[in-house]
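seq as requested:
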Amino acid sequence: MVSKNLLEFAAKNYDFDIDTLEYIPRNGGKIENQIYAFYKNDKKYIIKFDPPSSQYSNQLRETGAAMDFNYYLAKNNINVSVPLKAANGELAVSIQDNGEDYIITAFNWLNGETWAFDGSNDKMCFNLGKVMGDIHRLAKDYKPQNEYDVLKDISGCHSMGSSFGDLKIYPTVYKIAQELLEEMKALPRNKDSFGIIHEDLHQGNFFVDGDKINAFDFGDSMYGWYALDIAISLCHALWWGRGGNKVNDFTNVIVENFLKGYLSANKLSDFWLSKIPMFMKYHHLRMDPEGHGIGCNREEWIYYIENDILFDGLELKTISDIINNAALNREVLLSVLQKKFGENIINYDYQITKLYGWVCNDVRLISGIAETIHGKLLPFKVVLKTQRKVSPPLDADAWTREYYFYASDFYKILDENAGMPECYHSEISEEKYVLWLEYIEGAVGDDLTTDDLEYISGKLGAFHGRIYTQPELTENLSFLSLNNFMEKKIWSWHKSPEYDYLRSEAFDVPERLKHMLIETDDNKAEVFDKLKQLPVVFHHGDFHAGNMFLNNDEVVLIDWGDGAGWGYLGEDIVNLICDNPNIELWDEYYRKLIPAYLKGISEYMDISKIESFYFKEMIIISHGYDIVRKHMLAQNRDEKEKQITALQKIYEMGE
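struct tokens:
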């Protein structure tokens, strides 16, 4: 409790009767700031006394600044405590007592009760996220009054890892902490991602009043990333609310509904949503396991940090997956389902399964049950593909090519020989594009037999032949790749370490195989003169078994990506032959797939006068030098022998 001197000063400055004061203990009175309630004009208020703190450079000014932001939120109808102005018109006042400067602030009384984070309450999780989203949305337009400003910045205060020096006794954890700080320092700061945050919105700093969340205690407010504020709140929610066993694990409920609530009030890009797990790990690093009661001892805490675990086996990867689910644009999905079924969809449930994803793309299966306006239940599967910007050095615009295939009228030129998934929705920005696609059933990848691939090769040939004989079909498709893949391939090879490796003693392969590669390279000008005599046809550019489906004789091709456009007759088929990890099948593919392809193309084109198709030369250029690289990087003799076998298969082709 505070001195009578402080209480009298407060009563005078906030104009209330000192006899109405009621002390409110917090955590048995162990928390530094002291809180009282008082009455004025039959209304109840809160008054807080804060002793000096080393986290401030100018405690009175910074507290007043935080209160000004708090007041701004209240004036804009956000469910937060409303700061009161003292007799001097300020939102925070100071008085010295026993040689120490105390800061005094007062607020209206907030109704409600402390929520013990019942993780099963999805509505409360949603509302908590929405309050934070409202705060961040308004923070973007906040302009401090007079000289008020939240002077604390994440980079210059205790929250930016100044305490991490204590971790030096745990070398692996300290190294992780330093790497994390460097990653954070490199993050961008702009209006949509960085601003004033609460920084401490845990269950002790808001009340539940019916369906409302009333937030308070903005004393730790600072400039920081909005994703960090989310991470801090989620960490506390999960610590206390996810449940103590696998049967009652409310992780999904808490994270998914919190983020859905947040995104209903404020937009945050996929990039920043993806950073939330990183910020959660950062917050976990700041928590002393023995001082913050996070449910583990120090040895367990070290193990968790080293293995990307928050606590109790909850992996950060799990959080990432839930975030991807919560970030799904439900309005777009509703539109997609209505287009898919041609009916008025009023509701749906869904789940997300990751299909595959590389560094820059992410492909997910969205499946569930849709309900029509007439009560009909329709099971559905659609594919959501997100491609983030990547700029290959040889073709800076290639990363958007697939988007334009689906957004254009390209699908109109497809026929029974080759199809593509229907696109229900597409959108593009400077950083990514998104495609909502038809889910294709059928045999794909390793499920395709040699007979299947022979059939598909014939269909590919017929497709190439038809497009070649009807050039008007593609004349308006300006986004197609140029006919220069082979040339780009060999010139990029000349700049690579394996170019010298091929000619070194370290490349210990039979001389005939080395000679095959070197001879093709030495005579590349002559080889390209020959290739240029071939017809230039429309090609897929990444034609392998993983990008084709066969269902009841219907061929559907996916991933019309950066290489799709123009190429020499045969480029697609040689890729199908050698882009298969089962090297033992290469010679069989060569003997069966090429004739099937040529037969298909002959349905539309007269190729009888073409003396040679130079399939072997194409294979050497497109795959031979990649095999040299794999040999160079192989970690053991078995891997090197595998690459020698691959070269021998190419050597024997056409014999």
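The chain has a mean pLDDT of 87.
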